[in-house]
Amino acid sequence: MGSGQVTDWQGKHVTVAGLGVSGVPAAKVLRGLGAEVTVVNDGDDDRARAQAEELRELGVTVRLGDGATLPEGTGLVVTAPGWQPDKPLFTAARAAGVEIWGDVELAWRLRGPDAPPWLCVTGTNGKTTTTQMLASILTAAGLRTAAVGNIGVSLLDAVNGDYDVLAVELSSYQLHWAPSLRAHSAAVLNLAPDHLDWHGSMEAYAADKGRVYEGNRVACVYNVADKATEDLVREADVEEGCRAIGFTLGTPGPSQLGVVEGILVDRAFVENRQQNAQELAEVSDVNPPAPHNIANALAAAALARAYGVPAKAVRDGLRAFTPDAHRIAHVADVAGVSYVDDSKATNTHAAQASLAAYESVVWIAGGLAKGAAFDELVAGSAERLRGVVLFGADRALIREALARHAPQVPVVDLDRTDTGAMLQAVREAQRLATEGDTVLLAPACASMDMFTNYNQRGDAFAQAVRELAGT
Q1: What interhelical angle do 291-306 and 127-140 show, nearest 10?
Q2: Whole-angstrom Cα distance, residue 387 to residue 390?
Q3: Under 8 Å between Cβ of 223 and 232
Q4: pTM: predicted TM-score of the whole model, two decimal places
Q5: 8 Å CB contact between 215 and 247
Q6: Three-state DSSP class for residue 446
Q7: Cβ neighbours, 10 Å, residue 338
Q8: Of the candidates 297, 243, 290, 373, the residue with the CA atom closest to the CA atom of residue 132
Q9: How far is CA 256 from CA 219, 264, 277, in A?
Q10: How many C-beta neighbours within 10 Å does residue 235 have?
Q11: Listing from the earlier edge strand, what are the strands of the sheet with 99-102?
């Protein structure tokens, strides 16, 4: 099907791999365009059956419990982003010379001539917050926009919608399956080991993140403190005139955004950037003003400025932004101790950023490690730790790292993986904490050993804190 737009879908045989968040909209859109659509899905549970019934009414063929076999006559595969590249279905497709697209690739190919440009955000941590900040800034500038992609509105619904510009969050999975995406501007916020079981190696993971820079027209935004992101910019094949724009928590050089005496400043999108800087906002305009969140704000500002947004809109957009739940959310103060829910810190990189935001921490951690090691995290945070409470399936990995790098820190190891462990964890943390400390839930692990997801884990923490406070 080549790399251009597809205009005639009538009668094309498309196999959609996976039901769920992206598979169902993809099947509906393709069927609406006249394609012959078959959905294959590994699972065969009640939810899948309900989705299958809805699609069958539209004339879509659905095969449940068999995601391995390539349907005969398939001319294109459109996959849910989470399906691993080595699945038999894809091996069969490649052997038959059939292209494999993700939902992002499909959305990109379905753009009409007046489709809004994309400002794209990826990275190991901070993607959702940065994308939402960007959308808030664009809205403050009077532009019609939406936060789409890995969050919010489906890209397939938004791609030809009534928008001036889109703020697009992209995961490494989505980028892997989106070879022809070409953004107006894009940012890679940071790179740390994550999802290596899916990608196979750190190099492959980084390469998929780096795809977001391919063909950028105006700006490739990178993190000055994370050289790997700058390396990806150097390797990218961009349009002539596209600029590398850095963001830093320090004083910015030319072509960078940074922080000077509590002010977010722009030395990239100003006249005579060798001498001049534009004030954008105050650090206090960022909610919450933790270091990694200020970095998110700078990245969002850089993408907005690349699109031509005035400085005032950056300030107004950041002030208007409210972070999602379970992202460094202050729950309560009890007896001079602050209790903070960062259940969204599901890997070591996110937990490190969270711990760095507080001077004196009683840390609640543990869960599913996803193949991660904890030595670097513990060594870098040891001086902040007043105590640690561990639970979950892989807590021993954290306990061993603490023994190596922070042997002086008291550790309570709760030999529990049940949901009720959270109340005991909070009580133990209260016992370890003294006035001025922060009890921080930043698990550095996934939640599925004990909870449905990180939201439920964060809710359990907040409920336990409320019980503690007697509210």
Answers
A1: 50
A2: 10
A3: no
A4: 0.78
A5: no
A6: strand
A7: 18
A8: 297
A9: 11, 11, 10
A10: 12
A11: 61-64, 36-41, 13-17, 76-79, 99-102
Spell out the per-residue pLDDT of the chain, length 471, in tens: 444 556 689 999 999 999 877 889 999 999 999 999 999 999 898 889 999 999 999 999 999 998 899 999 999 999 988 788 889 999 999 999 999 999 999 999 999 888 999 999 999 888 999 999 999 999 999 999 999 987 767 788 888 889 999 999 998 889 989 999 999 999 999 987 555 555 556 677 778 889 999 999 999 999 999 999 999 999 999 999 999 999 999 999 999 999 999 999 999 999 887 888 999 999 999 988 889 999 999 999 999 999 999 999 999 999 999 887 788 888 999 999 999 999 999 999 899 989 988 999 999 999 999 888 999 999 999 999 999 999 999 999 999 999 999 999 999 999 888 888 999 999 999 999 999 999 999 999 999 999 999 999 999 999 999 998 886
Cα–Cα distance between 193 and 373 in angstroms, integer? 10
Instruction: Quote the CA–CA distance of 294 and 248 in Å, as a whole number.
Output: 9
Strands 185-188 and 36-41: unpaired
356 class by beta-carbon count within 10 Å (0-12 exposed, 13-18 middle, 19+ buried): middle
Query: If you count them, how many residues does the chain have?
Result: 471
Distances (CA, A) of 294 to 273, 297, 300, 356: 22, 5, 10, 13
CA 425 to CA 429: how far, in whole Å? 6
Supply angle C-alpha 428, 433, 436, rounded to 5.
Answer: 155
Residue 293 in tokens: 């969140």
